[in-house]
Amino acid sequence: MRADPRPETGSRFLWLFALAWAGGSVAYVPFLTILLPLRVVGIAGADSVRVLGLITFFGAVAASVGNILFGWLSDRSSDRRPWVAAGLLISLTLLVLVPLGREPVSIIALVVCWQLALNMMLGPLSAWAADRVPRHKTGFLGGLMALSPALGALSGVIATVPGLANANQRLWLVAAMVAACVTPVILLVGRAPEPPRDREQGPPRRFAARMWLARLLVQIAEAALFAYLLIYFRTLDPGVDESSIARLFGAVLVAALPIAILVGRRADLSARPARPLAICACASATGLVAMSAAANVNQAVAAYVLFGLATTVFLSLHSGLTLRVLPDPRHRGRDLGIFNLTNTVPSLIMPWLTIAIVPARGFAGLFVVLAVLAAAAAALLFTLKRLD
Question: What kind of fold does domain 205-382 have according to CATH?
Fold first, then answer.
């Protein structure tokens, strides 16, 4: 086994990084799913669907470009912390300035700039973890990263508590929660040592390519369920309300956290740490098939719980194990930005996939197609050999 140039790190950095990473979810989950759509409806009225579609498209492009760009720029600097700090400050400033956008064009421009700033923070932040966390702890780190979607969902609940804050104050509340999550790692953790000038012999590039493609396939399925879960349940029972679906969604994310930590610890001890990812992808495919066959809400809930748990654990562990397959320590920020495309590209693919399938085949047809994608991801990962 080759030497690992990354420093041994105690649990403090792991937990502080996990909290900071969760700050990214706290930033975008309540804003993009609740606060921004409400504001767009108030501004654009009947044209709100088109405006939200444009925001989704251009925001995904900005996030993709920003993550790669600022990850690459942080590779070229001696310290990633200033990039994280600057991204935090600029993104929070733009967030609270959203009320100044009173026309669709200005709202779109603000969100695009906000996405760039947010990824100025997230790109270097993920590379910072790659600099510091040794391979034998990446599984545990991935488990801790399951905290991110759980806190993102919780922040949406807090921001929308009736009577707690008005529309503009909610943005300030979200900004305060993000700052509370990210600031500790900036203040309490020193910079990592510079990577070696001689290229470290990492795993073959095909390992990274398979990991990238497997995540993209699973992420397409996750994005579809995230966007259309309520509509799907209402096809089974029109009386299903949004609050019950929100509780189900949040409960699954919270329940996935201890499972992800446990599985991540086991992955660190395994000679084939990608095997748990393959098993999770299989479970996701099984959950999707069960959802396609569900005849009532109770069956659909049970199937979604399986899918949601497996997918959340998969995505969290994948984020940690990705650090093991980066081919060159000199370009960790750039390469992680390329991996981040698996988070943004599905937002561009999923709507067209849904439009092409659901009108003709219903959600059952969509879920079968998504199950095939998840099964393909499992096949890619089952064939991976040792990562070290």
Answer: Growth Hormone; Chain: A; (1.20.1250)
Percent of the chain with pLDDT over 70: 93
**Mean per-residue pLDDT, 38-59:** 83
The amino acid occupying position 319 is S
Q: Give the start-to-end residue ranges of the domains of the chain.
A: 11-188, 205-382
Output 44-53 pairs: Cβ under 8 A, ≥24 positions apart. Answer: 44/104, 47/104, 51/104, 51/107, 51/108, 53/351
The answer on pLDDT for 134 being more than 90 is no
State whether CATH 1.20.1250.20 applies to domain 11-188.
Answer: yes
Residue 255's contacts (CB-CB under 8 Å, 6 or more residues apart) are 309
Residue 310, both tokens: 């497996």
What is the residue whose two structure tokens read 């599985």? 263
Return the DSSP state at 35: I
pLDDT tens, position by position, 137-149: 899 999 999 999 9
Name the strand (E) or helix (H) holding 282. Answer: helix 275-293
Lowest mean pLDDT among 19-23, 52-56, 276-280: 52-56
- Written as one letter, the residue type at 283 is A
